[in-house]
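Work through this:
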Amino acid sequence: MGIKSFLVDPNGVLENWDEASPDPCTWSMVTCSADGQVIGLGAPSQGLSGVLAPSIGNLTNIQTVLLQDNNTSGNIPSEIGKLSKL
């Protein structure tokens, strides 16, 4: 996903986000549909910092992104505007 590499995760909540894994539906903080599509990222109040990666635009079925009460900064990537289900 590339999203993890843009975030600082001092509490290790994204520790099992392994980009080599064929199934992100097994990762913490990820919600998937019945057919295995990523539809949500939910990591509120987890002490994350950094920026939201442009690669979030690759998650074409995403419906929810919950990152409130973290320390993210920077601009919202323009790619997020292409996510019609968000």
Remarks:
- DSSP finds no helices and six strands in the chain.
- The longest strand covers residues 38-42.
